[in-house]
Automatic annotation (TrEMBL):
Xref: InterPro entries: Conjugal_tfr_TrbG/VirB9/CagX (IPR010258), TrbG_Ti (IPR014142), VirB9/CagX/TrbG_C (IPR033645), VirB9/CagX/TrbG_C_sf (IPR038161)
Gene3D superfamilies (UniProt xref): 2.60.40.2500
Alphabetized UniProt keyword annotations: Signal
Name of the protein in question: Conjugal transfer protein TrbG
Amino acid sequence: ALIEPSVDGYVNAIQVYPYTEGALYRLYASPGQVSDIALQPGEELVSVSAGDTVRWVVGDTVSGSGPTARAHVLVKPINAGIRTNLMIATDRRTYHLELESQADGYMAALSWRYPADELAGLTARNDRAIAREAASITSGLTLEGLNFDYRLTGDSPGWKPVRVFDDGRQVFIQMPGDIATTDMPPLFVLGPRSEAELVNYRVRGNYYVVDRLFRAAELRLGTKNQTIVRISRNDQRSPLAAMFGG
């Protein structure tokens, strides 16, 4: 699809397009004026190919240095009323542009924003935040003071806890690392008659932190056909034996 410039897409004199692989981007140029096509900082230019190299002048340059160096492709038409296409290949992606020359009005510069890179950056920051949360939970705990005397029974969904332990005051339920991307099951503590009771807990990183001890609890997800994982404390096993599978 051919993507045209828009008023909302301008940042000062630069038309900023959202990058989509395979899209065709319009650039309006004018004789006697240079239009600047700015690539992503750190992106290395591999090749530039134009359909008409007789009536269009195409060059390239670099601004900045080091990791933030930015490649620029410069285009200028000889006459008004002519068109051609331009293909830019880099070490990261390929750009396709439709160039059109007109007597009045031109685009001084264009660049792109990269939604896929932005999403990857947000995901990485979220992963780091989860790791910091998990580290903050375990940083004040010592192995000698922990009780790993818990067993897991019932279903085996993708969100099944990795480990359960307590420090004598709180119970820590370690969930899989990708739990934030799935539905998180609520936790119910089982009473003396196995009746389910909601319990106050908080989520920190990939841990459920329960501010009380319990003998049995269940993680439940769904309504009609529930997926249930039961957490039971077994006081007959030593903490270290439970931890290492003894």
